[in-house]
Amino acid sequence: MKAHDTLPYTALPSYSDDERIQRAIAFYEALKTRRTCRYFSADPVPRAVIENAILAAGTAPNGANHQPWHFAVIESADKKKALRAAAEEEERSFYHSKGSEEWLEALAPLGTDADKPFLEIAPYLIVIFGQRKGGMLPGELKQNYYVNESVGIATGMLITALHDAGLATLTHTPNPMKFLNQVCDRPAHEKPMMVLVVGKPAADATIPVHATIKKPLDQISSWL
Prior knowledge:
By secondary structure, the protein is of the alpha+beta class. It has helices spanning about 15-30, 45-55, 75-100, 100-105, 120, 145-165, 180-185, 215-220, and strands at about 70-75, 125-130, 135, 140-145, 170, 190-200.
């Protein structure tokens, strides 16, 4: 490799093979309880939980270490109301005309429609933006690299951190999403990727049976 400043690699725990297997199993067992939630409680959640989950997401691998993401956290009732109104307008267009018959058929077992009350009920909406331009320092507008991949990994880590803290989440992707720049006061060079709804599940929350069906290992992996 070319010469560059370095530090020693972070020390990792020295587990036996059996311990590694047990930890991998335990992590899978914990994560397989994660379910997308569409029925949220309005109960408050400490801001420190959200802040530390975002810090965890910010450790994700990314192109050139430019960290090309921004997490706009919405708490304001007025902002949530505005976001819901704009999102539902786009959703109505999708369900009534834009969505293909095949796509709507795929969504049918999940019971989704254009009505999104959770956008106002949940205590937090995290709007995730990918930054086409940025860099390491505030105010930089350098070219960023592998933005979609980097933001996707960070979002997965954010969802995992929130699940580990005992919170429910929902990924919401209205299309198109450019209205989110205005709602969140973000610059035009940032691309809205999704809205992550965060909070405690409602006491009577349910999940679609269809969502519990997961592909087995032999369908999602191959060994070469």
